[in-house]
Design goal:
- There is one protein chain.
- This protein is α+β, with helices and mostly antiparallel strands.
- The protein has a single domain, classed as Aminopeptidase (3-Layer(aba) Sandwich), CATH 3.40.630.30.
- It is built from 4 helices and 8 strands.
- An 8-stranded mixed beta sheet has the order 1-2-3-4-5-6-8-7, sandwiched between helices.
- The longest helix has 15 residues.
- 28% of the residues are buried.
């Protein structure tokens, strides 16, 4: 696991940009951005509970972890959202991850978190962030699939080859039914060995 020792400066690469809107791949997340990420994650707490608010430990665990695909969205240089992909194998503590048919094949990127600040929802920013994330997931060596958990019915809105693997009642204590989906990132089998 790649860790930083409370570095203050975030190191990113801008991977998409349009006017005042940038999408950045995180190389190393510094403490200067912790507060913004924690505030954005608070919107998850409204729907799912306090345990979904990021902490310093969870930020280091997921944003600064080797193998992860952490991406942030900025508008006028302020973070407005983030999405984090994790190789399925890095989630070995989760029983559902170990039960996935692709666990151990190192070919699946799990979308751990995807959040946009409330003020920026329904304005197209989330859609662009997700498209860039999927594009970068396809570029990761050996990654053929993207999985994740979303509220029941959400995956019907996704484009591409999507398969519902399971429905989970009361996902993570939310009281909601969630779907575990799998997106085939390489349906033409261009990158498969």
């Amino acid at each position: 696991m790649k860790k930083i020792k409370d570095n203050t400066t975030t190191i990113t690469n801008v991977i998409a940009s349009s006017g005042s809107f940038d999408i950045e791949l995180i190389e190393s997340l510094g403490t200067e951005d912790y507060k913004s990420l924690m505030e954005i994650s608070a919107s998850l707490a409204e729907d799912y509970g306090e345990k979904y608010i990021l902490t310093k430990n969870t930020i280091n665990k997921y944003f600064n972890r080797s193998g992860a695909l952490p991406i942030i969205a900025r508008f006028e240089n302020k973070i407005i959202g983030y999405i984090i992909g994790m190789p399925l194998e890095l989630l070995s503590q989760e029983p559902w991850a170990r039960l996935d048919e692709n666990y151990g094949k190192f070919n699946t990127l799990y979308t751990y978190a995807f959040v946009i600040k409330n003020d920026f929802k329904k304005k197209g920013y989330a859609k662009i962030l997700k498209k860039v994330y999927i594009s970068w997931a396809k570029k990761k060596a050996g990654i053929l699939y993207n999985t994740g958990h979303v509220k029941l019915g959400i995956s019907k809105k996704f484009k591409g080859q999507i398969k519902i693997i399971a429905e989970i009642n009361n996902w993570q204590g939310t009281g909601e039914i969630f779907e575990y989906y799998r997106r085939n990132l390489d349906p033409e089998k261009i990158y498969e060995n």
